[in-house]
Write a structure and sequence with these properties.
Elements (H helix, E strand, L loop, with lengths): L3 H31 L10 H5 L4 H4 L2 E5 L3 E6 L4 H15 L3 E3 L6 E5 L3
Antiparallel strand pairs: 1-2, 2-4, 3-4
């Protein structure tokens, strides 16, 4: 077996992996837009809590409604901590910030 064969094989495997990744993304997009909400698995409060490192989780409370997981600051977070929490909520959980003065909080949809 020549030294080129493993390199060619690796390049082929990378192409297959990338192609499969694109297929999975397309399937996920299709399912998100076509699967009725009652069939989708609901996100649980524990799923959201697991996304937060211990030092951040201690600065917020978690509660659940039928449609959302609510992440509420226990107090003033400061710029850096707020940015870290906002990043987790938006980028990893598909949620958003709700500005409401002292009642401001983050919401994460239970069904995506």
């Amino acid at each position: 077996m020549s030294k080129e064969a493993p390199r060619e094989l690796l390049e082929l495997l990378v192409q297959v992996r990338d192609g499969l990744s694109q297929c999975v993304s397309a399937i996920n997009r299709y399912l998100q837009s076509h699967v009725p909400p009652e069939v989708q698995e609901a996100l649980e409060i524990e799923d959201v809590e697991r996304k937060f490192p211990r030092e951040l989780a201690g600065q917020v409370t978690f509660s659940v409604t039928e449609d959302h997981i609510i992440v509420k600051p226990r107090g003033y977070l400061g710029t850096d901590t707020f940015a870290k929490i906002a990043s987790i909520v938006r980028d990893q959980l598909g949620g958003e910030y709700v500005s409401a003065g002292k009642d401001s909080h983050f919401i994460v949809p239970r069904r995506r």
